[in-house]
Design brief:
The protein has a domain at 3-179 and 213-239: NAD(P)-binding Rossmann-like Domain (Rossmann fold), CATH 3.40.50.720. The chain is 43% helix and 16% strand. The protein has helices spanning 12-24, 62-70, 84-89, 92-112, 147-166, 188-197, 217-230, 247-257, 283-289, 298-311, 313-329, and strands at residues 3-7, 28-33, 52-56, 74-77, 115-121, 170-175, 178-179, 203-205, 211-213, 215-216, 236-239, 244-246, 266-268. A seven-stranded parallel beta sheet has the order 3-2-1-4-5-6-11, sandwiched between helices. Helix 5 (147-166) links the parallel strand 5 (115-121) and strand 6 (170-175). Helix 2 (62-70) crosses helix 4 (92-112), helix 4 (92-112) runs parallel beside helix 5 (147-166) and helix 6 (188-197) runs parallel beside helix 8. It is globular. Bound molecules: nicotinamide-adenine-dinucleotide (NAD) and thymidine-5'-diphospho-beta-D-xylose. Residues 82-84, 121, 123, 177, 187-188, 191, 203-205, 210, 212, 247, 271 line the site of thymidine-5'-diphospho-beta-D-xylose.
Length: 332
């Protein structure tokens, strides 16, 4: 049995990861989460009490972080400010959490010589043209576009520097767009599903030609667990499931799967600096660690996700109104 400290474990991917770890291993998990607007304690309901300790706190709180890191064998770092649109409206919390928070964790794992896995995003590589035959690989140069992706890029570079300069035992993974249960209604797929459930039309930014490379959160969790167990120290692994689709296609598929007219959506103001396309080449992860996605049928994964939002309105409804007010004020 190993003791994992999971930061951001009450968020979307972090909570999916905690459920995955509890199902698949005998590790004990301590979750450190500030429960910002994006964190939800209810996402961890059902995790047996003897398998998880929940600590509400900030990853920039050096004393708390030092104590929790000293009690763990490994740290898996999901906590972040994660939404691009928020980063355009108010960048400061992205610097505090994504940069200073990651620095605080790195200093603690350095002091206590703990294994560290850093969760990051494909957005650090910037974007691709729609017809570019290349996809992102581990050697693609960093070229982030938004305050969110630039702070994630900064955090990745800190991790790499702490490996090289201080011998910290860290790995990194950069994943494409996740979907699945427990995702905040501010994000693209849950926003559209819950709009339809509330009788509102989905909202597509601009023409909707932008492409995202979708992966189910549970496939991401399996990759992270594998890298934690078998990844090579200092290495970066790209995580993606060959799931490229335009936003327009995704909105139309959601409407169709929900029994609505596939054209019943609105075009709204585009995102400033909107990245055109992300696409991941995950050959390294597949070849070296033998990872394969389980959710390879996107419409089936989306159908299950729609069902989850339909059946869990009490989970998402409290956040819906404030989220839509934010978007409405931006013409989105
Ligand atoms: P999320 O916004 O749903 O969850 C973030 C969690 O971190 C929340 O529970 C929040 O309360 C917590 N948190 C925020 N600031 C904190 C702080 N200062 N101290 C402690 N806890 C804090 O985000 P997500 O979508 O689950 O993303 C998790 C990680 O995965 C992030 O690092 C993100 O960059 C990365 N990622 C996300 C995606 C995606 O598609 N969502 C894709 C690739 C990588
Ligand atoms: O209402 C919307 N309409 C719309 O067209 C919203 C909320 C989004 N969009 C578009 C913007 C993007 O092209 O959909 C796409 C996906 O948007 P988001 O869900 O905001 O995700 P994205 O900006 O691609 O970033 C996500 O993937 C990478 C996560 O939020 C990041 O945390 C992760 O790093």
């Amino acid at each position: 049995m190993s003791r994992l400290l999971v930061t951001g474990g009450a968020g979307f991917i972090g909570s999916n990861f905690v459920h995955h770890v509890v199902r698949r291993t005998d590790h004990h998990v301590t979750v450190l989460d500030a429960l910002t607007y994006a964190g939800n304690r209810a996402s961890l309901e059902g995790v047996p009490e003897d398998r998880m300790t929940f600590v509400r706190g900030d990853i920039s709180d050096a004393r708390l972080v030092d104590e929790l890191v000293s009690l763990a064998d490994s740290v898996v770092h999901f906590a972040a400010e994660s939404h691009n649109d928020n980063s355009l409206a108010e960048p400061r919390p992205f610097l505090d959490t994504n940069v200073v928070g990651t620095f605080t964790l790195l200093e603690a794992v350095r002091r206590h010589d703990r294994r560290f896995h850093h969760i990051s995003t494909d957005e650090v590589y910037g974007d691709l043209e729609l017809d570019d035959p290349e996809r992102f690989t581990e050697t693609t140069p960093y070229n982030p576009s938004s305050p969110y992706s630039s702070t994630k890029a900064a955090s990745d570079l800190l991790v790499r520097a702490w490996v090289r300069s201080f011998g910290v035992r860290a790995t990194l993974s950069n994943c494409s767009n996740n979907y699945g249960p427990f995702q905040h209604v501010e994000k693209f797929i849950p926003r559209q599903i819950t709009n339809v459930l509330e009788g509102t039309r989905p909202k597509l930014y601009g023409a909707g030609a932008n492409v995202r490379d979708w992966i189910h959160a549970d496939d991401h969790s399996a990759a992270v667990l594998l890298i934690l167990e078998r990844g090579e120290i200092g290495e970066t692994y790209l995580v993606g499931a060959d799931g490229e689709r335009s936003n327009k296609e995704v909105v139309e598929l959601i409407l169709e799967l929900m029994g609505e007219d596939p054209q019943a959506y609105d075009h709204v103001v585009d995102r400033a600096g909107h990245d055109l396309r992300y696409a991941i080449d995950s050959t390294k992860l597949r070849r070296e660690l033998g990872w394969e996605p389980v959710y390879s049928d996107f419409p089936a994964g989306l159908t299950a996700t729609i069902r989850w939002y339909r059946e869990n309105a009490q989970w998402w409804r409290p956040a819906k109104r404030a989220t839509e007010e934010f978007y409405q004020a931006r013409g989105q």
